[in-house]
Specification:
Layout (H helix, E strand, L loop, with lengths): L4 H12 L1 H9 L3 H12 L1 H36 L2
């Protein structure tokens, strides 16, 4: 998957201020809270947590596609 200008911008912001990168990528949730706590413990844990959040996006997207496909096939079987 190629990088877009927005992705490069998010990565730069994530390096400067890790919680901001997580917020832009994942929104306000548990990932953001964990990243804020890790960033309070130190810059390096915050940046590594941000990298993990960014790398898991593709995994979550694939899982969501699989779940949607399974859901639609079960609806077809039930005649809904």
């Amino acid at each position: 998957m190629p990088f877009t200008c927005g992705d490069v911008f998010k990565i730069i912001l994530a390096i400067i201020l890790p919680p901001l990168g997580v917020f832009l990528e994942r929104g306000c949730g548990v990932d953001l809270l964990i990243n804020i706590l890790l960033t309070c413990l130190g810059y390096i844990p915050g940046v590594s947590s941000t990298g993990t959040s960014f790398s898991n996006i593709e995994l979550h997207a694939e899982r969501d596609k699989e779940v949607a496909a399974a859901w639609s096939s079960s609806e077809d079987e039930q005649g809904v």
